[in-house]
């Protein structure tokens, strides 16, 4: 098995794990993870991808806008994290053909097309991965601080601890998604 296929499978697993953790919440909580898992599955099987990179960018962008939802439904950091994941993944998916020689799917780069593509895509792709990881780290740290404040103010409340693991699992799923996108781009 090549590294790109393994990376795509890691991304599918991360997306489905995120959806599973949020399964009892509103669709704005679990559906973004399903969209990301579907996009990763399309990258794993590009010959069966009905949308292509531009189609996935459109789907992920619309899902990001939808997941932001209306204020007050979910905390802003949670909505921002989901939107960030979807937008970043959409742009990276759009860049993915350049990563692989300009083809439709996630095949291997070869020949002159791959050499020409490798001249321009690697820097923006790497920068976006780093910015995505840093932003998710900042959001996870803010959520961790907020969760600690809530738990400290209500130490015996079962309601306060009920959803305490969800942001951590979402952050872990995002980290796996970032790692899989990096591995797909930079694996040889």
UniProtKB/TrEMBL annotation:
Q: Which domain of life is it from?
A: Bacteria
- What are the record keywords, sorted? Membrane, Transmembrane, Transmembrane helix
Membrane-spanning residues where?
A: 6-22, 29-45, 51-68, 80-100, 120-139
| InterPro entries recorded | DUF5134
Q: What is this protein called?
A: DUF5134 domain-containing protein
Q: What is the lineage of its organism?
A: Bacteria, Bacillati, Actinomycetota, Actinomycetes, Kitasatosporales
